[in-house]
Structures are given as C-alpha cells and as structure tokens.
Specification:
10 strands, 15% strand, alpha+beta, globular, 10 helices, four-stranded antiparallel beta sheet
C-alpha cells in the first residue's frame, strides 16, 4: 500500500514576483503528477532509468533542453528548473537526480553544441530516450579542475582519449558522456576541451560502480586509447573550462532548490509527526519547544528558497534582456547553493531528532532524507568553494 505523502507546508511561494503564470502552471501541474508516482528505488540504476522514462513520457524533461530541440521553452529557464527540482526533491531525491542529470549532462551541448550535435542528442534527452552524463571530476581533480590529468591527443581523423574520470553521475547507465580533457597540458584551465563520447565507444570502460550512502548510479570511467571523431569535439578548442563554468552556473541554483525541496519534505514529515505523536497527555505539537523548532525549520527553508529564487531570476532576466545581469549571477547562485544545502541539512537533522528512534529506522522517509541531503553539500562545488566564489565577489565590490 502506498504511503500517503504529506502535503507541502505551503505553496505561497508561487505567488512571489520571481515567477510568472507559466511557472505557476508548471508547479501546479507537477505536484499531483509527482504524488501519483510509485517506483521501487532499491535498485538505483533500474529506478533511475525508470524515472528518466516517466519524466520523458510526461513531458517534464522538455524543460531540460531548449525549444530548438523540442524543449518546453525557448531556452533553458532557471526558474523552471528550480521549481521542478524543488518539487521532485520533495517527493523523490532519485527522481530529482534523474531530471537534473539530463539537464546537466547535456547542458554543454545546449550552450555550445553544433546544430548537428544538438539534433543528435538533445531531442532524445528531452524525450527520455537517451541518458546524459557530465564527466568532469577525476581522482586528483575535483574542485581543482586545473589538476586534470586526462589527455586528448589529435589523430588523423579525430582524437585519442586516455585517462580516468570518477564520481560520474549516471556512470554506467548513460548513453553518452560530455567528457572534459586536457588538450594543452601546459595551460592549466585554459587547456581543456570537451568531447561527446558515446557509451559504446571502444576503449571506454564504465563498469566500476561506486556505492554511496544514498544509492545513486555513480561510476569511475576509464578511457584506454578511446578514439572519437573530429565531430565529437564540443565547443571551441581549449574552451572547456569556461563551458563547464557556464553549465554549472545554470544548474547550481537548481541544486539549491533540490536541497530545500528535501528540507520542505522533512518539515512536512515533522509537522505530521508532531500533530500525531502523543506524550504526557498531549501531542508533541502542543509543546512550546516543538513549536520553536518547527518555526526555526520553516525560517531556514524559506530563507534558502528566497536566495534560490533570486539567483534563478537574475540569470533568466539577464538572458531575456541579452544584457549584463543586475548583480553577480555566479555569486548569487553560490549563495543559494551554500545556504540551501547547509540549511536543509540542519532542518533534516532537527526533523530526525523530533522523530526520536523512529528517525534512524532504516526505511523511514526521515532516515533516507538524512542520507540523501549529505552529498548536496559536496557536488557541483562544495560549500567551501561557494564561500570562495562569494568572498571574491565581495572583494571585487
């Protein structure tokens, strides 16, 4: 029997001026669809494939690609991505992961792909027919991208790739990978180029699955004399670092939304538990200490949400006007990710504490949220990296 999912504590945020009617319609249509889904997520790879299929069939993945490739909107819209990930994260962090990786994994193609590359990959991504992956991190090059060791050397007909990528989301289930490699090993971040590598390419081994505390399809990729054609080059030669940063700027605010979506779910679970749990002749919700904790949790979530909505609006506004943004978009996205992931972690921890022993019981929603939230403080730029981005912005004035 399907467990009833608590309704979000409030949807009043949809009335904020950051959004227009199209965004509100998207959010209101997505809520009942998410609530109606039921997937056995014990096999993370099979479940992720199933989420991609369902998200594609329902049309939600069309928001992960531009209109020229069959997308729902003319261009990638950060506010739509935020609302989608907030709602998906509330219902299923794995569904959020499946959606997010379709966008992040193909984002470089959206931003800088040739018409042929966009036609070959993006339409299939938006329909859930191809699974995408973003292959940037290496064993010795996570936050320090300049330390990248993977090489791409020119051949008569294309490029030869050798090296290793790790912590790659959708590793082992993706149909293609946007792979970042050094084409000028002496130039640091200015010597990186991106290549589209199909999963069936000889010399690519994706079998090394990485098991983590909150099951997600992750793998180490090994490239052994992996030959790709010239047409696999994505964007300009040695322009890969800037392309990676542009891609992350779009999706960083959406990571924040996924985080506080999980936080909203923890708050809803805590409210439901507090109202139903009786002790000392009254409900847990009757205690002032409980009310104070719930109030703190709500404030932490809403403050993170406002920073996230602002960051998404700033980017969309700059794109719409074709002009410089009002404020530093990268710093705004960094603030959103830092605050949302840290705040959501605190909220989920408080919700678990409120549940007592039930909170650490394997299989409960609070227990799974406690595991799911932790990685969001690390991937797509750890909290410490966000602090550096914000600090440099403040010093520039």
């Amino acid at each position: 029997m399907m467990t009833k999912i608590p309704a979000p504590p409030s949807t009043a945020h949809l009335a904020l001026p950051f959004f227009d009617d199209a965004h509100r319609a998207l959010a209101n249509d997505l809520l009942p669809w998410c609530a109606a889904q039921e997937i056995d997520e014990r096999d993370d790879r099979a479940a992720c494939r199933e989420w991609v299929r369902r998200l594609g069939d329902a049309g939600w993945l069309r928001y992960a690609v531009p209109g020229s490739a069959g997308g729902a909107l003319e261009r990638l819209d950060s506010r739509a991505l935020v609302l989608l990930r907030e709602t998906l994260g509330y219902h299923s962090p794995l569904a959020d992961f499946a959606f997010a990786m379709q966008g992040l994994g193909s984002g470089a193609i959206t931003l800088d792909g040739t018409p042929e590359q966009q036609s070959q990959y993006l339409t299939a991504v938006g329909q859930g027919q191809k699974i995408a992956a973003f292959a940037l991190s290496e064993p010795e090059a996570g936050s320090d991208v300049a330390a990248m060791a993977m090489r791409a050397e020119p051949t008569a007909d294309g490029w030869r790739l050798n090296g290793e990528k790790t912590w790659i989301s959708n590793g082992g289930i993706a149909d293609f990978y946007c792979v970042f490699a050094k084409t000028d090993p002496t130039a640091g971040t200015r010597g990186i180029t991106v290549f589209i590598v199909d999963a069936t390419t000889p010399g690519l081994d994706t079998s090394a699955h990485i098991d983590v505390m909150a099951p997600h399809p992750l793998a180490t990729l090994r490239f052994d004399n992996c030959i790709v054609p010239r047409t696999a080059q994505l964007g300009t030669l040695n322009g890969g670092f800037k392309l990676a940063m542009r891609t992350l700027d779009i999706f960083r605010a959406s990571v924040a939304a996924a985080a506080f979506g999980m936080g909203r779910r923890a708050l809803a679970e805590a409210i439901a538990h507090a109202k139903g749990r009786r002790m000392f002749g009254q409900t847990l919700a009757d205690f002032q200490l409980t009310q104070a904790k719930l109030g703190e949790m709500a404030a932490l979530i809403d403050s993170a949400a406002l920073l996230t909505y602002r960051a998404a609006w700033m980017r969309d506004d700059a794109e719409r006007r074709g002009a410089p943004a009002v404020g530093d978009v990268s710093a705004a996205a960094a603030m959103a990710k830092m605050c949302a992931t840290e705040n959501a972690s605190r909220v989920i921890d408080m919700a678990l504490q409120m549940h007592g022993g039930l909170g650490v019981k394997v299989g409960t929603k609070i227990e799974s949220l406690y595991r799911d939230i932790r990685s969001l403080r690390i991937y797509e730029g750890a909290t410490e990296v966000q602090q550096l981005i914000i600090g440099k912005s403040v010093l520039r004035g």
